[in-house]
Amino acid sequence: MRVDVDSAAITANVRALRAIIGVPVCGVVKADGYGHGALRSATAMLDGGAAMLGVVDLQEALALRRAGIDAPLLAWLHGAGTDFRVAAAHEIQVAVSSIAQLEAAAAAGATIHLKLDTGLGRNGIARGDRARAIARAIELARGGARIRGAMSHLAGSSREADLAQVADFAAALEQAAPLGLEVRHLANSQGALALPEARFDLVRIGMAAYGIDPNGPAGGDGAAAASLGLVPAMRVTAAFVDGVASCGLDDGLLPALGAPVRIGGETARVVAIDPCRLRIEPALTGEGVLWGDPATGDPSADAWAAAAGTIGYETVTRMAAARRGSAAAADAGTAVTADAATAPRRVLELGLDGEPQRLLGEVIGVKRAEAGLGISYGGEYVTPGETTLALVGLGYADGVTRSASGRPAVLAGEAHPIRGRVAMDQVVLDIGDRLASVGDPVELAHASAPELTGMIGARVAVELAGSIADADEMESLGFAIGARLRAGDAVLLIGPLGAGKTTLTRGIGAALGARGTVQSPTFVLARTHRTAAGPALQHVDAYRLLTDDDEEAELDDLDLDLEGAITVAEWGAPLEHALESWLRVEIERPVAGDDDDGDGDVSPRTVRLSGHGPAWPAGRVRGLAADRAADDDERQERA
């Protein structure tokens, strides 16, 4: 499958929208630019006259800064571990949705926008906390804090409801008048086009900038967007042979049965979509256009959305998954890796066999809400009474389809249905009078959302987790890891005495063809093995390298080649400060043993593998599980 993006179309769309709306625009490039590529989209929007750029979190903002974007950036969703000093250091403006976030951002010296909930029921300072939050912001501003703006978000329930939000926002701005705010913004693409009263000083333009009608698929022909002078920027094609193409759900496609596919001058319809296979009838052969620009005869993204029962937003955003494997070199600088200091937890957990298990996230906001509050776009769910809402930082850009509304998410061991529409980057749980805290883990089982399949968004990390029955299986896992290591890689093994760290390293050594016996380095601190694979294997015991504060290992006394060799460190967590990238392998065991190689103990272990840094993107971690059976066969042949 091929995903082509026309940057010139994005630029032209922004220019057209600016002319229609008449106020400055913030070009929104969150979720890998709605699947179009964050860097490409950011550059195109700035070329079209965007005054600033909007992203969901600091992780996305940092990726743009590192890629050379120096325009004003605003990030508005933050996890429990967010370090606002990062925002201040890189001149990234932040919107805060609670008094706690306000305090932290002000203390860090970040430039702040107050995000107020005026009726969307998601992210934003609750109405009940508003007066106190604004009063505190005024107090902090007098002490030197930089409070630049205020924002909210329209629910799009009806014109009357949106106008009520406009009035509520205006009233809040009156309370905030002593702040002397420079910029006030409420409207997204839909609101900016339909409601001039919502434009204030700035509007945030997302989907419309990519040429998709923000009001939804309508007739599925893209006519509404074309009437505004907008041109779709994305074209998706696939090679079909006798009606079959080698792409599917794993590439981000939605189960859109009946969606049109254009091959030559003929139109076929989708009749089946599997993880890696797409079938159409009639069974045509040739290059098929799944969607593109209807003005040139292509089907529209809206047609695919209508067939899938969703909106064009979700259809194109999911293409971030496909672009990971395509020629997306223009956006190579925007690759992101998991970091709690800059983004909420978003992890697709796979079993050690590579099968999806759970989508893992965290609570990013908890607020008490009044009765009668509509939740998310359209206000389809209304709180029946005063209640507590828990906001979770996962959405359809991360693999939770919009159709997942009503499905259970597990918080503190208890399942709560997702309330309201699933958004691009967040869902809401109504937890009644139960307690929850920012940072609490949340999980969505794969069985509850089978559309996850293997699709992951551009900002979702992949972790492998499962049970290891005995020492032989632990060594087999090490062999699978070792077969994919290269010079400069580091593997940090975390686990108690007797967990099997040395056994796993022995498997790594077997895959590399290490010379000599791989054994615990406890008494020598480090052993170096020459290997048939080329790079030496450095086997380190980091436990004895701990400094007095027990936080970072001291490496000055070791002659380690971190660039030319492969390093495996037992008790390896303290080495993280010295590395740009590493694979973390956490091992838990129910019963402590007497030795560290696990040879005499067959009690099961639980293992979790996670990649950190640019050398361990999600695709590479996922690859560790892809061919374990083949690795087992190869290991046995070598033995």
Automatic annotation (TrEMBL):
**A GO-annotated cellular component:** cytosol
Please note every region of biased composition (Acidic residues). 630-639
Alanine racemase C-terminal domain: from which residue to which, for each copy?
356-465
Key words, A-Z: Isomerase, Pyridoxal phosphate
Q: Which GO terms describe its molecular function?
A: alanine racemase activity; pyridoxal phosphate binding
- State the InterPro entries in the record: Ala_racemase, Ala_racemase/Decarboxylase_C, Ala_racemase_C, Ala_racemase_N, Ala_racemase_pyridoxalP-BS, P-loop_NTPase, PLP-binding_barrel, T6A_TsaE
Query: Which GO BP annotation is one of this protein's?
Result: tRNA threonylcarbamoyladenosine modification
Bias (Low complexity) occurs at 618-627
Q: Which residues carry this modification: N6-(pyridoxal phosphate)lysine?
A: 30
Q: Where is this region: Disordered?
A: 591-639
Write one Pfam family the protein is assigned to. TsaE
Q: Which cofactor does it need?
A: pyridoxal 5'-phosphate
What biological function has been recorded for the protein in this entry? Required for the formation of a threonylcarbamoyl group on adenosine at position 37 (t(6)A37) in tRNAs that read codons beginning with adenine. Is involved in the transfer of the threonylcarbamoyl moiety of threonylcarbamoyl-AMP (TC-AMP) to the N6 group of A37, together with TsaD and TsaB. TsaE seems to play an indirect role in the t(6)A biosynthesis pathway, possibly in regulating the core enzymatic function of TsaD.
Q: Which PANTHER family match?
A: ALANINE RACEMASE, ALANINE RACEMASE, CATABOLIC-RELATED
Q: What is the protein name for this chain? A: tRNA threonylcarbamoyl adenosine modification protein YjeE/alanine racemase,TIGR00492
Provide the species name: Agrococcus baldri
